[in-house]
Amino acid sequence: MASIIILSIIAIIFLSWIIGIYNNLIAKKNQVENTFSSIDVYLKNRFDLIPNLVAVAKQAVKSETKFIEKAISLRNQVSNPDLSMDDKIHLDNQASQLFTRFFALSESYPQMQSISLFKEIQSNLAEIEDRISAARRAFNSAITQYNNAVEMFPSNIIALLIGFKVKEWFEASEGERQNVNVDNLFEAE
Amino acid sequence: MSNIFDEDEIDKKRKQILIVFVVGLSILFSGGFFGHPMLAVALGITFIFFGIIFIAGSNSPEGGLWAISRFFGWSIQGLGFIGLLLLDGAKGSWISILSFSIIPLSLIILPIIFFKLTKSKQEKIQSQVQKRKLQLNDEDLEFIDEIIYKLHDQIKSIENQRIFNLPIIIFTILLFNSPFIFWTYSVIQAKNGIVSFVIIGSIFVFFATLGAMKATRKYAMKNYTQSFKGKLVFCIIQCLGNSILKYIPNNYIEESYLNRSNLFGYFNKYTGDDLIIGQVNNLIFECSEIHVSNKSSDDESRVFDGLFFVIDIPQRVQTPLGTNFKFGRKILLDNPEFNELFSVFGNDDTEAFYILSSKVLEKMVEYVYKTGQSFQFSFIQNKLYIAIPASPLKQFFEPPIFRSLWNYKVYAEIITDFKFIFELLNTLEFRKAG
Questions:
Q1: Is there a single domain that holds both residue B205 and residue B251?
Q2: Signed CA dihedral, A127, A133, A134, A135: sign only
Q3: Chain A contact for B433 (CB, 8 A cutoff)
Q4: Shortest CB distance from B353 goes to which of A31, A127, A134?
Q5: In this structure, are B176 and B302 located in the same domain?
Q6: How far apart are CA B362 and CA B339, in angstroms?
Q7: Of A35, A126, A145, which has the smallest distance from its Cβ to B350's Cβ?
Q8: Tell me: the pLDDT tens digits for A118-155?
Q9: Which of A160-174, B23-37, B316-330 has the highest mean pLDDT?
Q10: How many domains does chain A have?
């Protein structure tokens, strides 16, 4: 009888430990999703600026037809409500390049800078980019904690059993990492 | 630079009383010394009288024990004078023996005081990290030198004031220690009790000197202290931040801010001084030295001593964020060194990463490494609160007595602390009201 009690106590302790690890993994996964949703919100804010960008470009730089076409195409793509997260990240990279090109154009066409909508885009974009950068840092920090739990013993065993895999970091887009050659922007496509 | 210290504020009456006191004591002292017993008695009574005055007027943050100790010190010295300077007969000798036998009695009080101070020191160390050890590099030293060079004229005039005050201090220290000098004389005459003389005497000299320095700093050097704080410290801070400043020596940050900051535990006693209001990077800040404690009927425990900053930030923080665990769960930021030095709590990771940008984290880490000193902070609504603890028994803006004002060490801590705060304010990027 005594041995049954001891075994039961050991089993309860072991089970509690397993539950603890499981809950910790779930909490970390939720944290990753939560921080990713913040990025999503700010990405949407950035996409929301594209129609304004199109309006300014149409008004001030009609001759840059290629740029305007690209901007309209991107505006149409981001307005699709069924985009996956990968699609959004891909489109966000394109949006980054579009904005870089937009501000480069504003130096060639100073009349753009006098349009009030341009200033609005400029100030909103700065704020949104700061927010995206912070959200990306938060996401990557959550990913690091999650990946540590998925890879480290003994939580890696539980992770394997429930099918948790290592997640990718949210890297800065190529366009943001490199000094963009604005003249060649869009040329490759 | 504007002179924010109004000369009219200096208590002239107090200064006059002090001069009369010092001159009177000098006459009595010399009279008694050269064998006029009645003057010696008058001197003794004066000491006792001032002992009572000190007790009545004590507002020292250490509480009543220091006042009692001061009273003992003054009374003993008074009795000592009465006795020792009446050496013309057996009566005088007995009085002197009686008076100096009180010194060991007073040592019963001193250990209690020492125990109290050590206790609060330990509490502080537990709650507020260790004693400060500044580690300045060449760049910092050069920066301090530049400021000293810029403020050459101000330093020169206040240094003159310090040198002018030195004889008063030395005189006061001698005065405080004079019974000991006479006692030494009597012990040597009697050729016994050398060991007890050395032990008790050295303790006496220490406390008498400490008392003398405290008393002179508070009364004789008030003018010098105010010049140092009001002119020099003010100019240094102004130089650092290129900011518009206002300095109110006898005021301090409102108590409600302490409660709102959520950085301090329960407290029921709060004092402070040296309120500075200014603006850096378009952010308005208030700062003062504060002393927060929790006083019960038989005990007083320190909660916080140090500098407290309240900074208006142009963005409303949605959920509280800071070093208080009550703010939510622990947030691990993307700087491992920072995570080792600070624990940040909050409920919104993205906002935490937004406010605590990589640069802000680096600044905070750099400050802790440089000063060996951690600090507490919180972002609540549209305010940033920062509490930098002082090392035990140290006051931030107190001027040196025996150290020259040309020594960089005098300004090292003030400059390091304010430079950090101003750099932090310049690093914080709030783009618009949220």
A1: no
A2: positive
A3: no
A4: A134
A5: no
A6: 11
A7: A35
A8: 777 877 888 888 888 888 888 888 888 899 888 888 88
A9: B316-330
A10: 1
